[in-house]
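Hey all, quick one. A colleague (J.T.) asked me to put the 3-methyl-2-oxobutanoic acid job into the tracker so the inputs and the structure tokens live in one place instead of scattered across chat threads. No bug as far as I know, just bookkeeping. Sequence used:
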Amino acid sequence: MEEIDQFWYDKKVMSAEKPERIQIFDTTLRDGEQTPGVSLTVEEKCEIAQALSNLGVDFIEAGFPVSSAGEFKSVKTIAEMGLKSKVCGLARCVPKDMDAAMDAGVDLVHIFIGTSPIHRKYKLKMSREEILERARESIQYVAERGFKVHFSPEDACRTEFDYLVEVCKMAQEMKVAHINIPDTVGVMTPAAMEYLVREIRREIKTPLAVHCHNDFGMAVANTISAVNAGATIPHVTVNGLGERAGNADLEQVVMACKLIYGIESKIDTRKIFETSKLVERKSNIRVMPNFPIVGENAFAHESGVHVHGVMANASTYEAIDPEMVGAKRKMVVGKLVGAHGVRGKLEELGIKVGEEQAREITKKVKDLGDKGKKVAEEDLVAIAEDLLGMTGKRERIVELSDLKIQTQLGKNPKAEVVLKIKGKEKKASDEGVGPVDAALNAIKTAIGDQEIALDEYHLDAITGGSDALADVTIKVRRGGGSTMARGVHEDVIMASVTAFINGVNRLLK
Ligand code: KIV
Ligand code: ZN
């Protein structure tokens, strides 16, 4: 993208305290795993930890070792992986927690204790003095065993300022590596966070971390304000996962710090998109399409005015170059497009169609649009190729040789497939919630590519009656790429399988 200064208002409010570099403390595997419904296996946690290390995060909070045998195993295995990132384990101020973290062999122990009046009264039932003393003893317990301490006065942002400073001063005297300021229930605003961090920094020289929750949707903004005031270790999670409404999102914090504030980190930004996709798959929490940076629409342009602008110069409607985060720009063909526009767009993409064919393709695009689906450039190509019968003429990597489906009342349907993959025969069987699901699962098993996933599925009956032709349009995804594909057959399973194999061939080519 052309070098332009698009952040001149931001420059007016940048503080002199903002650091040149930040260290990224990733807590996807700890607070991120506290997202309701997320539970990762040891293998999945290790795969994510490896990806985070490749991405360049400085610290990986790998889990809460005392919480279960599986959690202890995950943290220990990650600590033994020899990653470039330092591995951290969470512990309350109780010996069994701290022992578990140290036994797991982490590089640093994150110990926390609630300091706010609410936590003191209702959760801990301890006085200010008792909490201060427990925190001091705990820091000493870990430090004298040769481990570094990352210390958190939990619920710091609802703690009386004088007491918070007293606790932080104690931690500083005890020589903890970092002091973290958690906004445990996300009550801060950017201005309040900037004020708090600046005031703490007047008293405390130990490097400050911040841990912002997103209850009011301000976790990223609050984190960036804290960094602007001199905090150097933002806690983040991939895709903003985390307890309740989540934590500050890694992608947004890193990119805003880098592009708006000129604050660098060790993150290899080109790996951001693929890391987000990995976490999306493993956590089963889908990223919203309009999520910044990694959402499906983050670099999609639909309106005619925008498409024109972007084609002239991408910076007209893009603040971030998609390549910088490993994503791709998409031009979306909306339902308001005319046959003329579709014909022109296809010509631009190297596909010539006649007037009648253009009308037919436009109808398909509009039908999908009316069902709330958007059609990207590659989808338009797929629809055109299917309608023109070009798919069959392409060299195909995967071909279906045979398919058997078995359904029985009260049991999951089973499918057996025989595929030819690059000419070699591959057999597999699998089950599913229905016969189509079973067939597609068996195909995925035979191909053996875990990255292939079905994103959307539409079934239309072309004619009436039980012998109607089934017209299936699907969206198949693999890694960062996706494509639409179509299959038409009098048997709905065959129409689905044809569409799926067409899509897979397009993605594997
Ligand atoms: O939100 C929080 O306060 C936490 C602490 C353990 C730092 O997750
Ligand atoms: Zn938290």
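Adding what we noticed when we looked at it: Residues 31, 211, 213, 243 surround zinc ion (ligand 2) (CB under 6 Å). The first helix runs from residue 8 to 12.
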